[in-house]
Amino acid sequence: MCTAITLQSQSGETFFGRNMDFSYDIEPQLYIVPPNYEWNNVLNMRVLRNHFGFIGIGQERDGSLGFFDGVNERGFAAAALYFADYAQYEEYNENNMKMIHMGKNPINSWDFLHYILGRCSDIEGLKEVVQNTYLIGMPDPITETVAPLHWMAVDRSGKSIIIEQTKRGLEMFDNTIGVMANSPDYQWQMVNLRNYMNVSTRQVPEVWWGNTRLSPFGQAAGTMPLPGGYTSPERFVRTAFIKTHIELPRDATGMVMSCFHVMESVSIPRGVVMTSRDTYDYTKYTAFVNTATCEYYFKAYDNIQIGTASYWENCSYTKDVVCLGKLMRPVIFEKLYPC
């Protein structure tokens, strides 16, 4: 369970971010991956070289570093979200390795985010990479299953696409609404929005049923049709309405605040959603990136104070991956004193 959005300020800066809702134990950390970094593609043991450096949130386990989201030095940003019951990948075997000779690069699905962050400068470049990629499903070290994933990407211009591999094959969709959630697929989510065309920011006027006058209970009556649960379709609708109707600030600081306020409407408190494994599915963290500056803004479930980290302030330290630390930080309460 996750939600992702993109927003553009009045000055044209594009922000991209997501809620990471998960029921497995994770310890997300911020990493800097330098340009020209070489890493192993576990499918065919070829060493891959990144073209661009990036900053991303991920986790290292059993010697494997996987990423949840990130932004590279060209302002290209992307995130991976769960896509249960819809994602379908080919299993690893010698036969599908022949795709290399057909001009396609086989990539493990949980390596795909790292792959595109290191190679794509914009959405047009991503489309070319996707057309030459063949996704293979292999168990990841966190869930120890073939995690069903789909991806949302955005560049500095504000263009965004969704990438999904289903029984229909590997597909790309222009993300005109700038929102992504989980299952069903993106096309279904967009059709479902038509069920909520009567949602409005305007107040509903009083009406008469016969001789009985009915008046709304205060303000916000126009938003009553909005769904209030935490399923993927409900979160998609709620987020799409809010992000397309908020007042967009002019400066970057105001945009950061607006981004977090939008995601608060779909943040899941611990204990509200239980899985069949008797584990909590809740919002582990919320993070946004400014694609113009390659800066991260983030807060974790147990610390809602916003932290920040910049690619450009940390990219020159080493030629290897650098860990900037955990998102889960000690809480510091700011005290106020008499003037």
From TrEMBL:
Q: Which UniProt keywords apply?
A: Hydrolase
TM annotation in the entry: none
Q: Does the keyword Transit peptide apply?
A: no
Supply the SUPFAM superfamilies for this chain: N-terminal nucleophile aminohydrolases (Ntn hydrolases)
Quote any Pfam family the record assigns. Answer: CBAH
Q: Which GO terms describe its molecular function?
A: hydrolase activity
> Is Hydrolase one of the keywords UniProt gives this record?
yes
> What range(s) does the Choloylglycine hydrolase/NAAA C-terminal domain occupy?
2-309
Q: Which family does it belong to?
A: Belongs to the peptidase C59 family.
Q: Can you name this protein?
A: Choloylglycine hydrolase family protein
The organism is Kineothrix sedimenti
